[in-house]
Amino acid sequence: MTTEPGVDELLRQLTPQVLGALLRRYGLFDLCEDAVQEALVVAAVQWRERGVPESPRGWLTTVASRRLTDQLRSESARRRREETAAALSPSDELVAPGADADLLPEQDDTLTLFFLCCHPSLSPASQIALTLRAVGGLTTAQIAQAFLVPEAAMAQRISRAKQRIKSAGARFGMPPEEERGDRLRVVLQVLYLMFNEGYAASSGPDLQRADLTSEAIRLARDLRRLLPDDGEVAGLLALMLLTDARRTARTQPDGSLVPLAEQDRRRWDADAIAEGVALIRETLSRAVIGPYQLQAAIAAVHDEAARAEETDWPQILVLYELLERVAPNPIVTLNHAVAVAMVHGPRAGLDLLATLDADDRLAGYHRLDAVGAHLLEMAGDTAAARERYRAAARRTTSLPEQRYLEARAARLGHDAR
Fold this sequence. Notes:
Elements: H1 7-26, H2 29-50, H3 56-73, H4 75-88, H5 110-117, H6 124-135, H7 140-146, H8 151-167, H9 177-199, E1 203-204, H10 210-226, H11 231-244, H12 270-284, H13 291-304, H14 313-326, H15 330-344, H16 346-354, H17 366-379, H18 382-395, E2 397-398, H19 399-416
Parallel strand pairs: 1-2
Helix pairs in contact: 1-2, 1-3, 2-3, 5-6, 6-8, 6-9, 7-8, 9-10, 9-11, 10-11, 11-12, 11-13, 12-13, 13-14, 14-15, 15-16, 15-17, 16-17, 17-18, 18-19
């Protein structure tokens, strides 16, 4: 045995490899995933007490396989899955392997797991939860905590996701070549949503969830290791690094929000910025340009400005114009309006923002009001700005954002007096 301090990190790294080994041998995603989770719990206790085994992946695979074969042998499992197990597993596979059995896959199945967990039959929320559990190695309790929901509710969500994958007839294997591009876009979207929920929590008392952003970045690094030549994978990782680099400067000690223009840039993570800038520069020079690369390039321009006043807004505007052509959506237009205002004045920005008023996709979205309030404040219309800040505060479910928006409205009211 060896002793290592990072048991949790090691277990997270090994989770997709071990699950892939079992799935490739047995199929039965729901049973294999449950068996791996049980093995992780055992390892978390034993490895801290006795040290990490010489072959941690082999140890986990053996323990998980024994848990799985115990399930397959049980009378209740046999009644529920008799036909399926018989078809997928030769009889000798229902005997638990010895400790020296080699169940390790010849290849890393992490990418296959990404695709399986992001199966198109699942909702985005279920895709994220299943990815965090099966690929990220988080427990149900940890995932529930990350999304601020009861553990029982998250357990039901994960269970339903696994059953839906089973009902859809999904098998463990890479999707057909003609489907891989679409499936990869779903994987990237899941990681993007996971990161965004951590960077700007949609509800609750905290502005940020560092556990979610860190996990999204780790999984994005894993995906880049598996697909080193994909420009959008690199772009997403660069975007995460460049955005997360500002995390410590986004809040005051009391947790209140600090907007980008007012942040102490000396607190930004210079190493993360350097890594992100180098990654996006290298990627843009060789890959077909995609939306994540363009968003990363915009983040790089922000991060490379020593002061807010030195931000190259004309360059950002050009990038947003290109992004509108490559991947048009209302959120891009919302941010584009800010860039237009910074280059051509707040009224020009408000004109572009007005094109979103009838877009049902942004109905009730607090940032539409928040951006409108900011541009109205820039234009000197304090009364209208105050009302839109108040409207944004009513619509957000994030307490730090709510307090910030209410404070902006109150300040404008005070200034008016």
